[in-house]
Structure formats: structure tokens, C-alpha cells
Amino acid sequence: MEYKKDDTVKLLRDYPTSNPSIVVKKNDIGRIKAVTEKVIFLEVVIGSNRIDLEVNINDIKFVERTIEETEECPICNSNDIDYGVCVPKGEQLFYPWKCNECGASGKEWYSVEFIETVCDEIK
Ligand SMILES: [Zn+2]
């Protein structure tokens, strides 16, 4: 798959950093800042440290893609997407989606804003 800026990825092996007391571990999660042909520039947050890491493209696994709008599949850009029924989760809700082209699926999240309370007519 093709990685994009702001994708969330998981590391598949330990990575040393420029600070010898900090090692980025296997299964740590990072956010992609830039993508080149073979090297991915990641930002990994460990405790209060934000670490910039240069990793091999084969040493990461895709976890999640955050996008502003999903009129098309975030993986293959197809418009052939089916949406499921809205599922409320507290003050947010999501629509499950599935791409009929590549089989990717996910959730499209919305925030819910309270407007007003209205009473039914009293009989
Ligand atoms: Zn797709």
C-alpha cells in the first residue's frame, strides 16, 4: 500500500534515536510527516518526548488513515463506497464504510452538537 502524510503506522522493530536513553520500540505508534520512495519520516510520541524518526518503509505497518472528507476510499481513491447505519457513541457518532473496489473499511466519525430540548404537545 501507499503511505501518506498523517497516516498512523506501527513500527515492526526497535529503532534507536539520536538520544541514547530513548529507544523507539517495536509496536510503538507513529504519525507520518513525510514520505519518500524508501524512507518514511515519522513522529513518535514517547512520554513527553516528540521524536522525529527516519525509518525504512518495510519496517512499518499501516494502522489508520485520518482524512477530512471521505467521498472516496482513502486507500484506493474509488468512489464505490457503501455506508452502514449511523452508530452513536456518546457525543460522537460514526458511519461504518466499506470500499467495494479494494475491500478497505473503516468508520467515518462525526461530532454531535446539542441544539435544544423540545417538549411534545401536552394532551
Ligand atoms: Zn478502496
Structure description:
By secondary structure, this protein is mainly beta. It folds into two domains: 7-65, SH3 type barrels; 67-115, no CATH class. The protein has no helices and eleven strands. The chain is flat and about 75 Å long. The model has no long low-confidence stretch (mean pLDDT 89). The structure holds zinc ion. The site of zinc ion has 8 residues, from loops.
Looking at the overall shape, the CATH architecture of the largest domain is: Roll
Total individual domains? 2
Portion in beta strands:
over 45%
Low-confidence stretches: none
Adjacency order of strands in the biggest sheet: 6-5-4-1-7
**Count of individual helical segments:** 0
Condensed summary:
The chain has about 120 residues and is mainly beta. The protein contains no helices and eleven strands. The model has no long low-confidence stretch (mean pLDDT about 90).
How is the secondary structure organized here?
Blueprint: E1 7-11, E2 15-16, E3 23-24, E4 29-35, E5 39-46, E6 49-56, E7 60-65, E8 81-83, E9 87-89, E10 92-99, E11 105-111
Antiparallel strand pairs: 1-4, 1-7, 2-3, 4-5, 5-6, 8-10, 9-10, 10-11
This protein binds zinc ion.
Descriptors:
single chain, 123 residues, SH3 type barrels, 2 domains, five-stranded antiparallel sheet, four-stranded antiparallel sheet, 11 strands, 0% helix, binds zinc ion
